[in-house]
Amino acid sequence: MSVEGTVQTLSDAGVEFVIIGGWSAILHGSALGTTYELDICVSPRADNLRRLVQALAPFHPRSRDLPTGSPFTWDEATLRKGAVLRLVTDIGMIDLVAEVTGLGSFDDVRSGSILVDAFGRRAWTLSLRSLIKAKRAAGHEKDLKALPELESLLEVEEP
């Protein structure tokens, strides 16, 4: 998977997105391990969805939730249909979300984010406080296991 290539592609295309989930934790210094997909919250604005479609089209996005060979149309209408779209592309797996549990819509997520240097670009990622809040609200076992380390990182960041 090329998270670096994905972030660079989206940033260079002017796509408005926030890195969430495991890669957000990694960008804050988490050592809990790797994650196999890049989770991002994307702005639902029509011009942003158009940029997203154009940016990823060369990498042949397909839904991970459909059987291999099933018809899938990569366009703005597909992006507007659901709150979560789990993709596999030629550059890796990407999960696109419209909202983040515990935080809200893209605008809410963006307001709880910070701009960081990531993969040779400036990119938005959840602040540690927002990441902790989202993981606690999600309540998945892997998210709850990450909380002690993330809370320790927060203590170091904000003594």
Secondary structure topology:
Blueprint: H1 3-12, E1 17-20, H2 21-27, E2 37-42, H3 46-56, E3 62-63, H4 76-81, E4 84-89, E5 92-97, E6 99-100, E7 104-105, H5 106-111, E8 113-118, E9 121-126, H6 128-138, H7 141-157
Parallel strand pairs: 1-9, 2-5
Antiparallel strand pairs: 1-2, 3-4, 4-5, 6-7, 8-9
Helix pairs in contact: 6-7
Brief synopsis:
43% of the residues lie in helices and 25% in strands.
Structure description:
By secondary structure, the protein is of the alpha+beta class. It has a single domain, classed as Beta Polymerase, domain 2 (2-Layer Sandwich), CATH 3.30.460.40. Helices cover 43% and strands 25% of the residues. It has 7 helices and 9 strands; from the N terminus they run H-E-H-E-H-E-H-E-E-E-E-H-E-E-H-H. It has helices at residues 3-12, 21-27, 46-56, 76-81, 106-111, 128-138, 141-157, and strands at 17-20, 37-42, 62-63, 84-89, 92-97, 99-100, 104-105, 113-118, 121-126. The strands form 2 sheets. The protein has a 7-stranded mixed beta sheet. Strands 6-7 form a two-stranded antiparallel sheet. Strand 4 and strand 5 (92-97) form a beta hairpin. Helix 6 (128-138) runs antiparallel to helix 7. The longest helix has 17 residues, at 141-157. The protein is globular, with a radius of gyration of 15 Å. It starts with a helix and ends with a helix. The model has no long low-confidence stretch (mean pLDDT 91).
Q: Main attributes?
A:
159 residues; Beta Polymerase, domain 2; seven-stranded mixed beta sheet; two-stranded antiparallel sheet; 43% helix
